[in-house]
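Researcher: Next sequence.
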Amino acid sequence: MQSVNEIVEAIHNLPKSEQEKIGKILEQEKLEKRREVEAQVERFKAAEKWLKENRAEYLGQWVCLYGDELIAHGEDGMKVHRQAKEKGIKSPYLVRVIEEPENFVGAWL
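Model: Next structure:
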Protein backbone atom coordinates (compact mmCIF):
# COMPACT_ATOMS: atom_id res chain seq x y z
CA MET A 1 0.00 0.00 0.00
CA GLN A 2 1.35 3.38 -0.99
CA SER A 3 1.54 6.32 1.39
CA VAL A 4 -0.26 9.56 0.63
CA ASN A 5 3.07 11.25 -0.06
CA GLU A 6 3.97 8.58 -2.61
CA ILE A 7 0.62 9.00 -4.34
CA VAL A 8 0.94 12.78 -4.43
CA GLU A 9 4.45 12.46 -5.85
CA ALA A 10 3.21 10.02 -8.51
CA ILE A 11 0.45 12.49 -9.45
CA HIS A 12 2.99 15.32 -9.75
CA ASN A 13 5.03 13.14 -12.11
CA LEU A 14 2.07 12.66 -14.46
CA PRO A 15 1.56 14.81 -17.55
CA LYS A 16 -0.55 17.93 -16.94
CA SER A 17 -3.50 16.48 -18.86
CA GLU A 18 -3.59 13.43 -16.56
CA GLN A 19 -3.32 15.65 -13.47
CA GLU A 20 -6.30 17.63 -14.74
CA LYS A 21 -8.32 14.44 -15.22
CA ILE A 22 -7.60 13.44 -11.62
CA GLY A 23 -8.65 16.91 -10.46
CA LYS A 24 -11.94 16.66 -12.38
CA ILE A 25 -12.66 13.20 -10.97
CA LEU A 26 -12.06 14.40 -7.42
CA GLU A 27 -14.23 17.50 -7.95
CA GLN A 28 -17.04 15.35 -9.37
CA GLU A 29 -16.88 12.99 -6.38
CA LYS A 30 -16.95 15.97 -4.01
CA LEU A 31 -19.98 17.42 -5.79
CA GLU A 32 -21.83 14.08 -5.67
CA LYS A 33 -21.12 13.74 -1.94
CA ARG A 34 -22.40 17.28 -1.31
CA ARG A 35 -25.59 16.51 -3.25
CA GLU A 36 -26.13 13.34 -1.21
CA VAL A 37 -25.70 15.23 2.06
CA GLU A 38 -28.15 17.88 0.87
CA ALA A 39 -30.65 15.15 -0.07
CA GLN A 40 -30.26 13.57 3.38
CA VAL A 41 -30.95 16.93 5.03
CA GLU A 42 -34.09 17.38 2.92
CA ARG A 43 -35.28 13.87 3.82
CA PHE A 44 -34.69 14.62 7.50
CA LYS A 45 -36.71 17.85 7.28
CA ALA A 46 -39.54 16.01 5.50
CA ALA A 47 -39.48 13.27 8.16
CA GLU A 48 -39.67 15.83 10.96
CA LYS A 49 -42.64 17.50 9.26
CA TRP A 50 -44.35 14.12 8.82
CA LEU A 51 -43.83 13.37 12.50
CA LYS A 52 -45.43 16.65 13.55
CA GLU A 53 -48.45 15.97 11.33
CA ASN A 54 -48.91 12.28 12.22
CA ARG A 55 -47.60 12.00 15.79
CA ALA A 56 -50.97 11.26 17.42
CA GLU A 57 -51.67 8.26 15.20
CA TYR A 58 -48.39 6.50 16.08
CA LEU A 59 -47.93 7.34 19.79
CA GLY A 60 -45.91 4.69 21.59
CA GLN A 61 -44.70 3.10 18.35
CA TRP A 62 -41.44 3.08 16.49
CA VAL A 63 -41.67 4.57 13.02
CA CYS A 64 -39.21 4.40 10.18
CA LEU A 65 -39.38 7.14 7.60
CA TYR A 66 -37.64 7.88 4.35
CA GLY A 67 -38.38 11.54 3.88
CA ASP A 68 -42.13 11.87 4.27
CA GLU A 69 -42.76 8.22 3.40
CA LEU A 70 -43.64 5.79 6.19
CA ILE A 71 -41.54 2.68 5.63
CA ALA A 72 -42.48 0.64 8.71
CA HIS A 73 -43.93 1.05 12.20
CA GLY A 74 -44.63 -1.01 15.28
CA GLU A 75 -43.87 -1.51 18.95
CA ASP A 76 -40.61 -3.44 18.39
CA GLY A 77 -37.89 -1.03 17.25
CA MET A 78 -35.53 -3.80 16.11
CA LYS A 79 -38.26 -5.34 13.97
CA VAL A 80 -39.10 -1.95 12.42
CA HIS A 81 -35.40 -1.37 11.69
CA ARG A 82 -35.08 -4.83 10.12
CA GLN A 83 -38.14 -4.19 7.93
CA ALA A 84 -36.60 -0.95 6.69
CA LYS A 85 -33.30 -2.69 5.87
CA GLU A 86 -35.18 -5.44 4.04
CA LYS A 87 -36.85 -2.74 1.93
CA GLY A 88 -33.41 -1.45 0.93
CA ILE A 89 -33.21 1.61 3.17
CA LYS A 90 -29.48 2.01 3.88
CA SER A 91 -29.76 4.54 6.67
CA PRO A 92 -33.25 4.42 8.16
CA TYR A 93 -34.64 7.37 10.10
CA LEU A 94 -36.03 5.52 13.10
CA VAL A 95 -37.73 7.20 16.03
CA ARG A 96 -40.01 6.24 18.89
CA VAL A 97 -43.04 8.49 18.87
CA ILE A 98 -43.70 9.88 22.32
CA GLU A 99 -46.07 12.50 23.54
CA GLU A 100 -44.42 15.88 23.59
CA PRO A 101 -45.11 18.10 26.56
CA GLU A 102 -46.91 21.24 25.48
CA ASN A 103 -45.31 24.61 26.10
CA PHE A 104 -42.22 23.08 27.66
CA VAL A 105 -39.64 25.66 28.67
CA GLY A 106 -36.21 24.54 29.77
CA ALA A 107 -33.97 26.59 32.02
CA TRP A 108 -30.69 26.40 33.87
CA LEU A 109 -31.13 26.12 37.62
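Model: Helices lie at 4-12, 16-54, 77-86. DSSP finds three helices and three strands in the chain.
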